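look at this record:
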Amino acid sequence: MEADARYYWRRAVEELGAARRSLTAQARERHHHFARLYLERLGHMGAPIPFSQADLETEMLGLPGRAAA
């Protein structure tokens, strides 16, 4: 069984990937919502967050830039 921090990190990355593949804005926002929740839980655990705030905003706005995963 994987550690909680690793689980939340992996799920955040998966949700961001799913958001990129989403066909509708509603689905994309739902995946972003879950990614934010997982990243928030990582932060509460004191675990390092795999994205800078700028990377996260770029990813969630769909702007070209560094890939999140």
Observations:
- The chain has a mean pLDDT of 80.
